[in-house]
Design a protein that fits this description.
Length: 181
């Protein structure tokens, strides 16, 4: 019980009296814009509770291409359902201009069209809250990544971008209160 009381006191000092994380404004890194075009390998995970109470969870790895000038995101890869390990080979095209996602399941030869629940972040907005910085790598091969909390409508996204002047996306985690809307 004594340790619990100390933890609570430390947590209160850490969070400050308003409940928001304390930070020094002078230590906040500059906001930046991601490159207009880039490619990477990405992994995704998602979990959804359907209206009937069924839980769906997936994990996927994709070759990812991003082109803001064309307003397109392209992904090709494989997705696994967590509970039954069903594998799906997918091609996914996201059109930022019309807000649609086109998913082609290469195994079933079916195409699905859906609405984008959130749009990719092209720049860290002025309304974003700086969360923290982390260092990736070792020795003289290090990259500093800055994590930002971005709230747009009901969506909450934690985006980590490199501080090396290139603003390369390193990680991203998005949370939607009503993914089906």
């Amino acid at each position: 019980m004594f340790y619990y009381a100390i933890f609570v006191i430390v947590a209160l000092f850490t969070n400050g009296s308003t409940g928001t994380p304390t930070k020094s404004l002078t230590d906040e890194p500059e906001r930046c814009c991601v490159p207009k075009q880039f490619s990477s390998v990405m992994s995704t995970s998602s979990g959804v509770v359907l209206p009937d109470g069924k839980i769906i969870a997936t994990y996927g790895t994709y070759n990812f291409s991003y082109d803001v000038d064309r307003g397109m995101v392209g992904m090709q890869g494989v997705s696994f359902s967590i509970f039954d390990q069903q594998k799906s080979n997918l091609w996914i095209i996201e059109s930022m201009s019309d807000g649609k996602i086109y998913t082609y399941d290469r195994d079933s030869k079916q195409c699905y069209k859906s609405t984008m629940p959130i749009h990719p972040i092209t720049c860290i907005p002025d309304t974003a809250t700086y969360v923290r910085s982390v260092t990736y790598g070792y020795g003289d091969k290090q990259i500093i990544g800055d994590t930002w909390l971005v709230k747009i409508d009901d969506a909450i996204t934690y985006s980590t971008v490199s501080r090396d002047g290139l603003c390369v996306p390193l990680t991203g985690h998005s949370f939607l209160p009503n993914p089906g809307k």
